[in-house]
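Subject: Sanity check before I submit

Could someone independently write out the structure tokens for this chain? I want to compare against mine line by line before I put it in a report. The sequence has 290 residues.
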Amino acid sequence: MRIILTILAIVFATGHLHRAEAWTRDQLSIAPTLMKQELLSADIAHPEIWQLAGRLAYHEGYGSSRPARRSSSWSLRPILAYDANANNGFANDAIAIGGLEFLVDERFRRKSAAVAGASLGGNHVWGLSKRISLHFDHTARYVHAIDADYDKWEYALQPCLNYFLSATSRAFACAAAERSVTKLSARSEKSLSFGMSRAYSVGSYVNSSQLTIMRSAIDSGIDYFQNSVTYQHQVLLGNAMLLSGRIKLSEGVEGIFSGRESFQISAARMVGRRRYEASIFQENRRGAAF
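---
Independent answer below. Compare away.
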């Protein structure tokens, strides 16, 4: 939490975003849709800008007179990363129980490795009415540890109903199903979530905030339910860099070793019309007898 707030403070102290009349193609390319509408809003009286804003809203499903598909896209990305826990093993070599220390078998200890693979994703949008749209996102990811016998694969499906409060704000309700499998574990999750997202300007900065409340049914060897709340904040800089911070807090579940807090910080930038991104992610887990 402190790291994310510190980075956002540095951004607001040192970065600079040009006013909407001076936005660049790279800024508009990297900005999320609600941010794009906020970028365009200052010059919306210009016919060309009006048409561009209208096209963006159209592809998001806004203003439909009848149900119709508005857009569809696919992405295939290679993955090359360093995974600190490629087999999803125990972080410590020993476990203390009742004052006694038990060694964890070598097979079940955390293993670090460089991993390579690919991810495939898709996004599809249907306009249902003037203010309601249906979005369907799906992703699949597979990585293999280099020089080690560890595989990870996962998939996620998420349909969402969006209600447009304005061009730069919306409420949403989503259902989701996902599954992940590693060398030592398998996990499935189904969830329902509700939230709101909004883009806005603070001084010369374009910001985006999103708050999500979720109820999840999880199967990780034991079935249980868990509630969580997630806040995400993004800031667009004038050099076509997008900084993001995300915090997720989950309730404890008695007798279950489960995720409690997760933090992610990422920076993405357009260079030569290509998007480059770096991120740091951490999740804390607690609970159960260990």
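---
OP: Matches mine. For the report I'm noting this point. The CA atoms of residues 123 and 137 lie 5 Å apart.
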